[in-house]
Design brief:
By secondary structure, this protein is α/β, with parallel strands linked by helices. Helices cover 35% and strands 19% of the residues. α5 crosses α6.
């Protein structure tokens, strides 16, 4: 056991070693929650929420959060082309099978939300409800350009304070009210301290998946994937400063989905941190999806 979770290692279909955090694996009386992080993020981003749900004294709930291949404690892929949504969805299914999960509530931040939408279309029997954190069926080119400008290209910090400063300079217009502690926390999710200094928590070749996108051309139409979410209750979270999910898209999502709850987080951009008041919002939604008998 590590901290408040179990380390879970799973083999992908191609043999690559995948890692996930498994909080309260013994909790069987409530639907589990699956946390799927953003492009260059890891399972650690869900820690506060996972602890709140898994240690609830009235009804503890299992929470599994993944490191995709090439991120966190999962192995890097020799072929960067495999940093692909279809491959990552397959990896997610491998983790669910190994953990014995046959139905869950899925929480996807950014890229994780795209995987969640894809799962609703491909494996709807797995879905009890979905939470999309700052992502939807329309991805704004400006947001993708900003993400492409820094993934795999950040300078190497010498201290955690310097790491926080790098991220603050990059994103302070999106997160104008973040404290030093919050910037340092995001920095610890971006780098770890290796034997030779700070190292990114992801394979820098992730940048290649973004470089191959033509952001001047029309982006793929993801509304058909979103349509597959209609049978399930959805909580859609947006940061008020987000440049990837607009307020107009969130409104269209609300209009097209019969059971979608929109939430806008003030003073945050892409993507809101799952902490503070947002934890209670998510807990309330989960309790509605999975009420007590």
């Amino acid at each position: 056991m590590s901290h408040s979770y179990r380390d879970l290692f799973v083999s992908a279909a191609d043999g690559l070693r995948l890692y996930a955090r498994d909080y309260a694996p013994e909790a069987r009386d409530a639907l589990p929650v699956i946390g799927l992080p953003g492009l260059a993020r890891t399972s650690a981003d869900f820690h506060d929420l996972a602890e709140a749900l898994s240690s609830d004294p009235a009804r503890p709930r299992r929470f599994i959060s993944l490191d995709y291949r090439g991120r966190g404690r999962s192995e890097w892929d020799q072929d960067w082309h495999n940093y692909d949504l279809k491959v990552e969805m397959s990896d997610t299914l491998q983790v669910l099978a190994a953990a014995g999960i046959d139905k869950a509530i899925f929480l996807g931040t950014s890229r994780g939300g795209l995987i969640t939408m894809a799962l609703c279309a491909a494996r709807p029997e797995l879905i009890a409800g979905a939470i999309l954190n700052d992502v939807g069926p329309v991805l704004e080119a400006d947001g993708l350009k900003r993400i492409r400008s820094y993934v795999g290209k950040l300078p190497t910090p010498q201290t955690i304070g310097e790491a926080a400063d790098i991220l603050r300079r990059q994103s302070e217009t999106q997160f104008s009210r973040y404290t030093n502690e919050q910037w340092e926390r995001i920095a610890r999710g971006t780098w770890h301290e290796g034997t030779d200094g700070f190292v990114l928590n992801y394979d820098p070749r992730l940048m290649k998946t973004l470089e191959s996108l033509d952001l001047e051309a029309p982006l793929p139409d993801l509304w058909p994937l979103f349509e597959a979410m209609k049978p399930f209750p959805v909580l859609a979270i947006r940061g008020s400063n987000s440049d990837l999910l607009t307020a107009a898209t969130l409104q269209m999502m609300k209009e097209r989905h019969p059971d979608l709850t929109p939430v806008t987080v003030p003073d945050q951009g892409h993507a809101p941190s799952l902490e503070g008041d947002l934890i209670q919002v998510i807990k309330d939604f989960i309790a509605r999806v999975d009420p007590r008998d």
